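Curious: why this fold?
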Amino acid sequence: MLPLFLAANLSVGYGVKFGMKAVSQLGYVLVIAKCIEVLISIWMGYWFMKEVPSWKTWIGLVVIIIGVVLVKQK
């Protein structure tokens, strides 16, 4: 499992690096990276530990998305 976590973390790090070249706004890149990281964590929990995301998990993700939209509005 450790090699998969290492690969996931490296992917997020390179995503931030290359995202900065594409978008040139760190705020947007970090928000997208964190969202991808949360989704990877949920996926790995399901895959390795057979944790089925409950409705509370999905409500939490919706709250995060709403928060990001509210903060990033002009």
Remarks:
- Residues 20 and 42 are 25 Å apart (CA to CA).
